[in-house]
Amino acid sequence: MTMKQKNNPKTGIARLLELAATKKPLMIGSVILSSLASVASFIPYIAIYFMVREILSVWPDVGELNAALAIRYGGLAFGGVVLNILLYFGALVCSHLAAFGTLYELKVNFATHLAKVPLGFHVLVGSGKLRKIMDENIEKIEEFIAHQLPDIVAAFVAPVVMVVILLAVDWRFGLAAMAGVVISFVLQISIYGNEGAKRMMDQYQVSLENMNNASVEYIRGIAVVKAFKQTVYSFRRLHDTIKEYTSMVIPYTLSWQNGFSAFITLINNIYLFILPVGILVGMKTTDYATFAATLIFYLIFVPAIAGILMRVMYVNSNSMRILNGVEAMDSLLAEPVMPQPAQSKKVESYDVEFQNVSFAYDKAKDTRALNGVSFTAKQGQVTAIVGASGSGKSTVAHLIPRFFDVTDGAILLGGVDVRKMSTSYLMEQVSFVFQDVFLFKQSIRDNIRLGNPEASDEEIVRAAKAAQCHEFIMKLPKGYDTVIGTKGVHLSGGEKQRVAIARAIVKDAPVIVLDEATAFADPENEHLIQKAFEKLMNNKTVVIIAHRLSTIRSANKIVVMDSGKVLEEGTHGELLARKGKYALMWQTYNETASWTMKGKGGTVNA
Fold it and tell me: Which member of 42, 245, 287, 530 has the lowest number of beta carbons within 10 Å of its beta carbon?
């Protein structure tokens, strides 16, 4: 691809044809066969014209009719129908083979690109949008190549052949029919070809994506919605997106009613343009047999024009819908991938160092989540990051494995900037246990093995035992082969957390990032998770994003953050002695831990 092509990517139909051209031999075959099928579809009309003319030439003495010739015309008409079906079937076979191959490549390329963009992209972009593009928009491209492209070819070839036939048989009747065709095309262009229609289709796609995102969120949170006796009407985001979609679609649909009704009426009554011309020509003709044959032919042929123009309109409207889907796909494919170094550097030590790091989530870099953050997490030690909500704790956790690139400053692993390591190498060095655990609908064994695809069954069991989850796994119907989410098999939050820890243990990475991993655990599960952490953190560089201060009292270093900046750092005892922000947080934490609620029945500890 040349630089000019990269800077000026194709859009519209040109982009669709570019996608279709990935299987060029099959698409060329489909185009040729579809063109021939379109031509063959007119053979029956020509055969009928000659048969009518032959009958009228001997009328009323039908006995003089050349029966053999009439049968040949009938055979020609039947042969044209059969040939049209066979050629079109061949075109569809070629286009479907091309479509399935292209669909496979597009989905693989799309998924591959999603894997290459910064991981933070997936944090910010709704899964509903990605699902719609993967499941619907890319599927529409398959529909375009398999069905629409042969129809587009036929839709362009058929009018050309139709015009030739209309003008060749009798130019006077042909011009009359053409007048109706031209007016129909003008109406169609006014309906589909204007900027307003394109703009409305863009709005339709956006509102549909918004509704998809809100629907996914609503379904995921259905337990909360039901628990608080809420409905779709009180779930404001979904309700608003449905209203937005409705307020856009209904006026857009109603705006078509006059133009579309006129178009349908016109193309189904083009014979009304033929009849006045037929009267004028009939008044002056001397060869009534030829005149009658020609008039009958046009009265039979012009209804076919409606089918041809409807096909053009159908192809046009579907192409607009598919084009918007392609634009949505291309907009994500245009997302810059995570830059990779030409030569990935390796490390031999595993200190994590933040050097004057600043970072903003928004592309304009106006609002900074981190501002001039500097600290070092030593290998073999536990470094805890604490602070109020919104202080930047989780952003620190996301930047260590390079979910995003920093705006300013640098993050070093073993003295090497993480931007100078390949993503695959960096991922090998870091294990994560996040607050929101995601387990795939696979066996527990496969979920743990995600940490290390080469791990043996014995290593998986050892990791599960170290993570304090072997016992509950063995109580499941099929033990380690139990598929999560099937036949009523569901794990509690603490159990999921321990499976995630087992996944991190089997990976055995030298750097561990724990992002509020015990925030929602009950006391029993928290105790088990803490025991699992002891195995996981042995001789590692550990960075803990802490919610409960009691869990990080023994940390080698505690970094206190506020509004994206480091306020203070030190051990638990050192920070308490300074009587600064951490000391105030510790005091508040202890007060809430001993909080009681008084009622008629007595005092209840919180």
Answer: 287
- Helical ranges in 117-170 per DSSP H: 119-124, 127-132, 138-143, 149-169
Relative to beta strand 565-570, strand 557-562 is antiparallel
CA–CA distance, 517 with 153 (Å, rounded to integer): 58
What is the rounded CA–CA span in Å between residue 50 and residue 293?
8
**Is 3.40.605.10 the CATH classification of the domain at 10-333?**
no
Report the alpha-carbon distance of residue 311 to residue 315 in Å, rounded: 6
* pLDDT value at residue 375: 93
CA dist list (Å): 449 to 497, 506, 540: 15, 7, 20
Q: Distance between CA atoms of 578 and 132, rounded to whole angstroms? A: 53
- Beta-sheet pairing, 382-387 with 596-599: unpaired
Q: Over the range 454-464, which residues count as b (16 or more CB within 10 Å of their CB) and which as e?
A: ebeeebbbbbb
Contact 383, 544 (CB under 8 A): yes
Q: What is the CATH number of domain 352-605?
A: 3.40.50.300
Pairwise CA distance, residues 131 & 457, whole Å: 33
Residue 496 backbone dihedrals phi, psi, to 5 degrees: -60, -40
In angstroms, rounded to a whole number, what is the distance separating the alpha carbons of residues 372 and 238? Answer: 39
Q: Are 174 and 49 in contact (CB under 8 A)?
A: no
CA distances from 179 to 156, 173, 183, 306 (A): 18, 10, 6, 14
Residue spans per domain, the chain: 10-333, 352-605
- Which residue type occupies 283? M
Query: DSSP label at 65?
Result: S
Task: Please say if the pLDDT value at position 601 is more than 50.
Answer: yes
How big is the chain by its Cα radius of gyration, in Å? Answer: 36
User: Among 275, 23, 289, which residue's Cα sits nearest to residue 145?
Assistant: 23
Q: What is the value of pTM for the model shown?
A: 0.61
Indicate the SS3 state at residue 583.
Answer: helix
More confident residue, 217 or 103: 103
The residues, any chain, with a CB within 8 Å of residue 113's CB and separated by 6 or more, are 332, 333, 335, 337
CA atoms within 13 A of residue 84's CA, in its CB half-sphere: 16
User: What is the 8-class DSSP label of residue 202?
Assistant: H
Contact 383, 301 (CB under 8 A): no
Q: How far apart are the first and last CA of the chain?
A: 65
Q: In what helix (H) or strand (E) does residue 434 lie, and over which residues does it extend?
A: strand 430-434
Residue 495 has pLDDT above 70, yes or no: yes
* DSSP line for 98-127: HHHHHHHHHHHHHHHHHHHS-HHHHHHS-H
* CA distances (Å), origin 338, targets 254, 293, 429, 510: 46, 71, 17, 23
| The CA-based dihedral angle spanning residues 466, 467, 470, 472, taken in that order and rounded to the nearest 10 degrees | 150
Tokens representing residue 102 in the block: 């292209």
Q: In one letter, which amino acid is 38?
A: S
CA dihedral 223, 224, 226, 231 (to 10 degrees): -120
Rounded Cα distance between 317 and 328, Å, is 17
